[in-house]
What we know:
Layout: E1 5-7, H1 16-30, E2 39-42, H2 44-54, H3 56-64, H4 74-89, H5 95-109, E3 114-119, E4 136-140, H6 143-156, H7 160-169, E5 179-184, E6 190-195, E7 204-212, H8 215-219, E8 225-230, E9 235-240, E10 246-250, E11 256-260, H9 263-266, H10 273-290, E12 294-301, E13 304-312, H11 319-326, H12 331-357, H13 366-394, H14 396-409, H15 427-443, H16 446-453, H17 459-472, H18 481-492, H19 506-514, H20 521-564, H21 578-586, H22 601-610, E14 613-615, E15 617-620, E16 623-631, E17 645-648, E18 664-667, H23 675-683, E19 687-689, H24 694-697, E20 703-707, E21 712-716
Parallel strand pairs: 7-10, 16-17, 17-18, 18-19
Antiparallel strand pairs: 1-2, 2-5, 3-4, 3-5, 6-7, 6-12, 7-8, 8-9, 10-11, 12-13, 14-21, 15-19, 16-20, 20-21
Helix pairs in contact: 3-4, 4-6, 4-7, 4-14, 12-13, 12-20, 13-20, 13-21, 14-20, 15-17, 15-18, 20-21
Amino acid sequence: MRDFVISMEEIRxxxxxxxxxxxxxxxxxxxxxxxxxxxxxITTEAYERYLESTSLKGRIIMELSRKDIKDMRWEEMWxxxxxxxxxxxxxxxxxxxxRDIREQLIKYFSDTPVVVRSSxxxxxxxxxxxxxxxxxxxxVRGIDxxxxxxxxxxxxxxxDAALLYRDELGLDIKHSSMAVLVQELVAGEVSGIVFSKGxxxxxxxxxxxxxxxxxxxxxxxxxxxxxxxxxxEASIIKHSGPSFRDKIVRxxxxxxxxxxxxxxxxxxxxLKEKDVLExxxxxxxxxxxxxxxxxxxxxxxDDEIYVLQSRPVTISQNREKLWYLSLRRNxxxxxxxxxxxxxxxxxxxxxxxxxxxxxxxxxxxxNELAGEIxxxxxxxxxxxxxxxxxxxxxxxxxxxxxxVYNDRVKPSNPYxxxxxxxxxxxxxxxxxxxxxxxxxxxxxxxxxMDKAKNGAVEGDFAGDFEKLFRDFGxxxxxxxxxNLLNHIxxxxxNPEKEKQDQKDISELERSFISALEKEExxxxxxxxxxxxxxYRLRDDDNIHLGRIEHQYLLSLNEAKMRIAAxxxxxxPADDLELEELIKALMDSAYIxxxxxxxxxxxxxxxxxxxxxQIQGQPAGEGLxxxxxxxxxxxxxxxxxxxxxxxxxxxxxxxxxFVVPLVSGIVERRGGMxxxxxxxxxxxxxxxxxxxxxxxxxxxxxxxxxxxxxxxxVTIRKNERKEYQ
Length: 724
């Protein structure tokens, strides 16, 4: 029995690796005559048996072998984590550990609400605090539900944030393990956290407390009361209260909810002075026992303090990790972000782009142009930062929906939820529909086609064409009317593609809603709406940002043309440092230095000779073979022929006008939520993303097979020296 389950009474001093850091810490606390809720621990041996008996271990290693985590963007890490989590959701626990775990759960928690927490070896050490990275589930009731949540905690070992953190610490990701703590839920009237040493002053202690359960405080949903205490004198230095008080409560059946406090508690401080002093005593006692400052979670019920967990205080955290964790948003935060983005940020973005468009750089003198370049650069950088800080976090609406959908529906395809998000009227799709409509007019009118080829447009076609250019011509790619017209002619010169049949998503939507409990249905509908909006804005926000970037680049190009005209050694296409451009504008006698490009041709040739198959992230279902068109500069988009496979570094929404021409997409950037993957799914095109060096390994004209199911690209080298 001890192989798979160990109760709190059976723990031995050498069981640390079996039960993990959190459980062993609680075992230590029980020896200090402090109250700890009863618990049992599902051992790392149970986890290992689960992986070995179900072939999950090999499948996880295969997922982690697609690409080095150091090279992954957040979208790719989330994709990897999503696929692994789905494996756990759809893989039952083998008979022997399942039987033993159930027997112990029935013995201790047959009709008792519990908390199911992670307890990974090394999880809560001095140097490796995994706080908030592994899952904990509060108020889980019923043996089947507890068993399912054990698997979800196991799966959280492979969460995107946990993978990032393990890599940052240099831990062996592929050989990580997980124990699970199943602990009686003590539904305290007041709960909180104490830091035995304050983050700003080691002579002080900090206590935070809320009415109800601790989940609201830990998740950041409930603002706490806060006490600063003199460690040595055991005296309260300062108390500060929140602007208003809410609490997290245990629901009757399962789960938790945020609830308004009744009037008699809304103005009531959660802790009395004697409680503050008792928590101070507990914190110092545990600090002395563990030999390190402690971050302790506690709850108070019937006038008694229970210790829920204790871990060493860790202060320094990687900036990228902190940003990554900030992407996780709850539904209320997503609603607030949506309102801010739709009502304020996007209108302001559009206004700034129009204001820039009203200033023609060609009409400015050199000094004015230098100032305008600096102004446009600053404005673009400000919006680019806002994109990172506010638009990207809103994309978590898709991630949150995907996780809830998969947890409830348990589909065999972990990306099934994406079908419920497509067709959300993205700007890039509207642009492409406008282009395709004009192409259809030329395709069916030979006379009009001949005129267009000569650069002449007239009648209704001319009016629609001008509107299309006015709406989308300033987003970065179509810099001239000629570019847009030539692309329309190219589309019209090829047979019209059959339109992708719109999937009937009503049944998927019904399955999702029906898979939730009655009290969750309104939340599900809310979440689906947020997910659809974040899916659309994930694409649209780049169109708006691209318009501002385009105006900045126009001013740079104007400067380059003027400076190149002064010297036969320079060309407008040369790479020049911004500082060099500004200096040359301010001093007409100054000739700037060109950037030196480092050639990697030998590396490229070696790779192209040897690589025949490359693996990435499956991002658009389907299987297709075609000639490769490698895109390294935006101007090369206009060279794409119908039916080719587009191979590129990354696709942004300004580039997706060519997607109706191509038959497949291969991209260096990875993830289901990147623009290339989103647009590929909209058009039903096979797509593989997340392939490092894709544009260097594949050459123009290579025969490429794109397997969007498995994420594999097979290359048959083109024997001809050139492919036009």
